[in-house]
Amino acid sequence: MLPLHNISTFQPQDRRGFQRYFRRILHYPQMDLEYTLWQMFYLCFNPKNVYNTTKYHKQTKNQWARDDPGFVCVQIFFIIIASLSFCISLGSFSFLRYITLVAWSVFVDFILLGIIVASIGFWISNKYLRVHGIHHVEQQVEWPYAFDIHCNSFFPAFIVLYVVQFYTLYLLLRTGFLSTLLSNTLYLLAFGYYYYITFLGYTVLPFLQKTEVFLYPIGLILIFYIVSLIFNFNCTIFVMNIY
Fold first, then answer.
1. What's this model's pTM, rounded to 2 decimal places?
2. Which end of the chain, N or C, is less packed with Cβ atoms under 10 Å?
3. Which residues contact 22 (CB under 8 A, 6 or more apart)?
């Protein structure tokens, strides 16, 4: 039998990488914003291109994860602008409400859920999906890379649920079946694409196998989509009532 290796959550190189990462947040000129915007564009239309550059990053810097915080910073900036737009359009703008919405959207929807999803993906891939062998160097998924996958997956979902949904609120907030169909189809596309990009992110790693498990949640989303249409459950109305 092959020896089993304990998987620690953070390796020493991960901690050093985190320190460099957060230092760069304080130095705006060090961020490659042009490359960040290029990645965001291709994540919406051809996400495989983004993960092809990930292979190059591994070859040149010996890590799969980004060392540039530009992607996260730009994403947070977009969330702040989108939150302001929703507050104004719904006619309920106040400074306190705006700060609350921004805090929830950034620290819960984006960061906290991202940490949870990344940790689950990190654990599943390292414990069950790694290819063990005696003729190659043992590798494992870096936790920062798992969080990068979440960030990549989140952006197209953000475009659908924050941008497209914002411009179609007038139609989506009605109570008819057509509004429910349009609303729930948007959520189906957003979450389905989220898990598809997640699947691509883990598939690009050559030491993982059976990464199709990251597509399994799409089946549950489809079931929920069908049931929600049967009972005329409008996701947009539900989410707007929460926020």
1. 0.88
2. N
3. 69
**Ranges under pLDDT 50 in the chain:** 1-10
Residues 6+ apart with CB under 8 A from 13: 63
Q: 198: which 2 tokens?
A: 């997640």
* The pair of three-digit structure tokens given for residue 215, joined into one six-digit string: 């597509």
Per-residue tokens: 190: 């957003």
Q: What value does the mean pLDDT of the chain take?
A: 86
Instruction: Please report, to the nearest 10 degrees, the dihedral formed by the alpha carbons of residues 99, 105, 110, 113 taken in order.
Output: 110
Half-sphere CA count of 164, side-chain side, radius 13 A: 16
